[in-house]
Amino acid sequence: MNFSGTLRRDEQVSLELRALYERHGYKKFRMGKFEEYDFYARNRDYLAGSSLLTFTDLDGKLMALRPDVTLSIVKRTKENQSGSEKLYYTENVYRAAHSATEYKETYQIGIEHIGKVSPYTSLEMVSLAVRSLRLIDTGSLISLSHTGFLSGLFENLGLSAAAEKAVRTCIEGKNHHGITAMTGDVLTKQQADAIFAAMDISGSFRECIEQAKAMCRTDAMRAAAEELEMLYDVLGELKNNIRLDFSIPSDTQYYNGLIFCGYVKGVSRAVLSGGRYDNLMEKMGKKGKQAIGFALYFDELERFLNTQPPEPLDACIIYDRNSCLSTVADTVKLLTGEGKKVWAAESEPEGRLYRRLIRIENNTVKEEEGNA
Description:
Elements: H1 9-23, E1 27-28, E2 34-36, H2 37-42, E3 54-56, E4 62-65, H3 70-76, E5 85-96, E6 103-114, H4 119-134, E7 141-146, H5 147-157, H6 161-172, H7 176-182, H8 189-199, E8 202-204, H9 205-214, H10 219-233, E9 242-245, E10 258-263, E11 272-276, H11 278-283, E12 291-297, H12 298-305, E13 313-319, H13 325-337, E14 342-345, E15 354-361, E16 364-369
Parallel strand pairs: 1-5, 7-9, 13-14, 13-15
Antiparallel strand pairs: 2-4, 3-4, 5-6, 6-12, 7-10, 8-9, 10-11, 11-12, 15-16
Helix pairs in contact: 5-10, 7-8, 9-10
């Protein structure tokens, strides 16, 4: 039975995403709502925010409501596990809101590939990211990047750790003024010019990858550009939703290699982010393990999805107080039995479109054209 007409748009998209991932061999990962506080405290550097919502368990143990899913998946990965795991999850997470004045419960859907990450694995991950956003908005965009490109540049420029951190913040914010302010004190003019050139690589993939290849100074930069170009070349018609942008956030404690963010029209923040996170696996004691994944953030998507106009009703039934209940009920039963979406009330639905208008007055049924 098709329930798409009775579901909210975000609920329908959630079901479609689950079906997409299951078709590609991903299996559902289930977990509890909370972990021991110490687990998150030890790994606080990998969390989007430092605030945790905590409570004391019945045995006096300090617990935290889950702020992140990937950490829990990595924690449960066995060190001696052979082969790869392909997992997807549909979970709520609990984090401080962007305003930082309250906590929010938000819904996420994501996928993780844990094990050997081959070139095909990366291709599949980017392809699924594009297809996921296309289910939501056909004009959506995925911005690709690679941590090796900027890391190779910074190593070539000889930046200190403090200078690199400040420069990364400026690049992620496309803050040209910040780089200019550092020139002459922290950065030489030559260093600043190279950083500006990397910061400005953003837009059409084919044009931007040529710019990137032209400014490669190290093997790491060349390897990053080659990997990105290889992926793009085999994406087929999905290329239309791909761009290149070296300014997307690239926390090198967490990520290494390919990283990407996804955007839909009308939403200012990224609604999808992901990438390769071997570094996280290593630092959480899963030596020799590779991993790549992404998550969709429904706190951002929900506003986009549920502000779209609802599908028109098939029929609007308006009855008066003199109408027999059985006449109204039988009319509704007939239409809903045919799979129609029906509104039945004494007045028309505010702000809804409908294809047919059926009036029941003194048990007489009259049909008129709707407003859709």
